[in-house]
Design brief:
By secondary structure, this protein is of the alpha+beta class. It has an eight-stranded mixed beta sheet with strand order 1-5-6-11-10-9-8-7, sandwiched between helices. It has a three-stranded antiparallel beta sheet with strand order 2-4-3, with no helix packed on it.
Amino acid sequence: MDVKKKFEFLKKRSDITEAVRKFFLDKDFLQVETPVMASHVIPEAHIEIFKTEQISIYRKPQSLYLLPSPELWMKKLISQGSGSIFQICKSFRNNEQEGHQHSNEFTMLEYYACDCDCRYSLELTKELLMGLFKKFRPEYANLPVNVYTIRDAFFKTTGIDIEKCPDFQSMKEAAIKAGFDITDSYSTWEEVFNLLFINNTEPELCGRGITVHTDYPAQIPCMAKLRDDAPYYERWEMYIDGIEIANCYTEETCVEKVHLYYDSESRAKEQIAQVQVAVDPNYPEIFRTFPPCSGTAMGMDRLVMILTASKDIKDILAF
């Protein structure tokens, strides 16, 4: 890309960023700025972390980690009574896959709506996107939003009903019966599900327009609240033209359940992570003063790609 074209993209990126800020400020969200490093992380077994070290003449060197999202610090602010907040910041993921949509260092838009659930945040996100489309990509302003539960989407694209396959063995047998090649290298329900979802459900249902998948199965652990009436998390993910753009939870606020998640993910991370990290076992205690809340993470780089019709993330980055 020539220099003139590069700066045209950077100008558009600047305008988009300011429009996003204005949207949340007009909704009375507090804009915050939190550290990009911490001495401990929220354990997520599948995310690799960048590790660094702070040196000082006054004490021993201290390990620090570049955070994969601002979640750790933003939740502390919410527990202290901040109310609804948002942030646009740099985030980092190590060992990230290479491709036109990925970067080890990326920009995250993260927002938390207090006293709200993920259904509210879906409507908020749709309002944000439609306003941005009208301003920056008018031909997308009237795109329909196709919403599927994970159960319906998975059945539609694989023929497998996940409610009839609650464990690994039944899921493996159903997948083999449906004609999928499930080798002995797969050993968990989540691995089989992800194989079929990524290779079948995402390409078939998420390739064009706006698609939202809701109600994620309980077999895929996360810090979202479980529904009271079914084994699904109050969680959704959004795709635009095949690009995964946002992930949202109704946040789990039960201290005991968050402790269990921490313990489980910490053990898994110790077994599979290439970069070992420190986890604060007392972090879940912040949820003793945590209000009902819905949190959404959106990839700003990918959002800018969509709004500028870019095919490669490198086109909308300065470097």
